[in-house]
Amino acid sequence: MDVKKEKANVNSLSIVLWYADNKIWTRELTLVLTGRDWFEFEKQSFYPELIQFLHNLGIQGNIEKQKAG
Q1: What separation in angstroms does the CA of 41 have from each of 2, 19, 22, 65?
Q2: Model confidence pTM above 0.85
Q3: Which range of residues forms the domain containing residue 24?
Q4: pLDDT tens profile 8-38
């Protein structure tokens, strides 16, 4: 199965709300940065804490793939 991802607006942030039974069920956060801006983002003092926070929530798969690649 070939999946294509549409181009996202570079340097953008969006939050999508997903509803179930007319109540917010979950939120989706998308952050899109250029390669250079991502490099700068990773150098920020809060970045390790953010990664640890996500890891504690069980959100780690994509982050680990980024480090490996």
Answers
A1: 31, 31, 36, 17
A2: no
A3: 12-68
A4: 688 899 999 999 999 999 999 899 999 999 9
